[in-house]
Amino acid sequence: MVSHLDLQRRLRRLLGQRLVVDDEINVAELLKMALRYEGWEVQSVLARGWHP
Fold first, then answer.
1. Residues 6+ apart with CB under 8 A from 46
2. Over the stretch 8-30, which tens digit does the pLDDT of each residue have?
3. What is the pTM of this model?
């Protein structure tokens, strides 16, 4: 039997990937935690020294 969480994860994989960009480290960390809690696989990159 497949759990509800497994079905959610499979559906998200079928729907594709998302890119989230934020220049506030604290906001980015909060987003990572929330997305992981919801079952998303999260990868992050910290780019220092870049200024528009």
1. 25
2. 777 777 777 777 888 888 888 89
3. 0.57
